[in-house]
Every structure is written in structure tokens, then in C-alpha cells.
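User: Hello, can you help with two protein structures?

Assistant: Certainly.
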Amino acid sequence: MADLCALADGTLPAERRAEVEARVDASPELQELLERQRRAVLAAQSLAAEDVPASLQARVEAQRRALGARRGRSRRLVPRLALAGAAAVAAAVVAAVVLSGGPGAPTVADAARLATQTPTAPAPPPAGKGQTRLAIGVEGVAFPNLARYGWEPLGVRHGRIDGRDATVVFYGKDGRRLGYVIVAGAGLSRPSGAQAKYIRRVEYQTPRLNGRLVVTWRRGGRTCVLLGQATRAELLKLASWPLSQPR
């Protein structure tokens, strides 16, 4: 994890860089962690670039007078060091939360794992005759009716990922199975380095998580994840189909 942090902020020694980058390239989970850490570094840098508040300057100056000038440092150096220390602490806190996932911060990999489990509830019916949606959804985002492509709903599973509700609808066709997940709440962090394709101005990413091909995208602000026994082209077609059909 220390190497990952150093890679994100550019302080990783050159002799370690190739090895660490190779490990990251081979692990979607490490790719997501690296992307989070890079965002934390940017946040910390933005904090460090802010002007020192007058109230902070006053407090630091009062402490400097109390300590005296025994260290021989200039009056202007102390506030700068104080701000640098504050920025470093903030960066450490942000990094710890980002790398650990933090409360309410599940990943696409977590959602994908949920889709590999088994149904615990019956299959939902269509929302109505001829409807392209099923009578189930998450926070206003409905699951698609994929019967047109021969994929029939098999069952449903409700779960929680780091405190968020998540629902999976399982589909079956000719002995194959798909898991379609919608996660409640704000969109999850996008996997870094994943192959992306834009369909009707929506970005669909196709990373491999634990050896499985996954399609992930956002609809209605919610993260959707689709994986199963299908090719990349078929998964993309199924994932994007509701966007191109009348509701």
C-alpha cells in the first residue's frame, strides 16, 4: 500500500516503479485503489494551494511568540510550515479513507461479486404488456426486459454493499446466466484503465474483475453492472439496449 501511495503522488523510486506498475496492471482492485489515491492526492494539493487563513496565521504567530525564537527560524516560515503540516495531515486522512474504501464507498468489484451469487426471490414480471422494463428497479432506475434477445429473468437477489442497497436480477438463456446489478446512491468510482466504449453518449467500461468480463455504466446517476456468460459485444448490446428503445 505504501508503494501504491508513492506511485500515485510521484515519489516512488524509479527502481520500484516497473514492478509496482506491473502488479497494478494485473489487478483491477489495485487499479481502483490507485485511481482513488490519485484523487486524494489532487484534493490534498488543492488544499495546500489555498491561501493561509488569517485566523490560522494569528494562532500560529501566537504559538511562535510563546515558544520564542530559539530555533532561529524566520517569522514567515512558521505559518508556511504549519499549513504544510495541516495539508499533510489532511492528505493522510483522505488517503486512509480512500484506500480503505471508507463508509459508503463500495466498488464496482463489490457489485460484480454480488452478481455471481444465487437468486433469493422469484423472477419479476414485465412492467406491462410489451414493456421493455421489468416491474422492479432501484431508486427509479428500472431493470430491462431482455426477452427480445432471448434472455428471461430467473430470479432476484437483494443485498447491501458497504451500507448501500443493491439489487441483482438474474437472466438465463440456453443454459447461460447473466447478473445485472443496480447499486443505490451516488455512482461508484469507475475502474481505472478499463476499455471504454461510448454508445449514444453513455460511457460503458469493460474491465476484467477476478477473471470475469464486466460491463459497468451509469443510468439515472446509479451504477449498473452486467456480467455473465456472454461476449463483450453481447454484454454491451444488452447493457445499452434500453437507451435506444421506447419506454
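That covers the first. Now for the second protein you mentioned:
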Amino acid sequence: MRLADLVLLVAITAGGLGYAEGGVLARRYGGWRVICWAIVLALPVSVPVTAVALVKDPPAHVALSAVAGLAYLGVFSMCLGFFAWYQGMAIGGVAAIGRLQLAQPALTLGWSALLLSDHVSLLKRGGRPRS
């Protein structure tokens, strides 16, 4: 096992534990408080890492639409979406509602086929995907 594999395993474990603990805490404090505190507690790590990344490799020619899209994802999809998700885990239980997330890949494929007319097919072993 390489170091990168070990780091990935630790990250997955920490993420899963944090996710489950967040669901338990949402029962007591409410989903919106849990998410807001998670963001606040992550700032001491995320702000310096972001600052170093910006200094080391500053963005060039970033379109306003890209910034707007990132802001939308950060505020609506992530923050407000997690308010509802953690509240759902608080009401329905972490184990029961967490299993619902396992259906997300299949639901994403189904909705993309239905709403966006995407072609969804089985990937055959050894074959090449259709162009």
C-alpha cells in the first residue's frame, strides 16, 4: 500500500465519521447549526490552504460566469442543501437516511436520461464506450 492510498483511506474514514456524527448532532442542534459550525471550524485549515494555493498558482482569466457558478454551488447546493439533508437525518435517523444516499448514482443516471436525454447504457467489459 502506498502513502497516497493510506491518506485516501484516512480521508474516507474521517469523512464518514464526520458525516455520521453530523447527523447525530443535527438531532440535538438542528441541521443548519451543524453545517454552519462545521464551516466555521474548517476555516482555520481552509483559509491558509486557499491562500497558499492562490499565491502559488494565481487564477488567470477567470470568467464571471465561473465565479457565479462556484458561488451558487457553495451557497445553494452545498450549504442550503446540507441544511435539509442533515435535518432529514435528524428526523429519520442517520442509518436510514444515509442509505438513501446510496441510491444517488442510480437516480442521477435516471434523471439525466429523463430530463437531459442522455444515453445511458451498460459499460461492457473490454469494450470501448460509444462515441
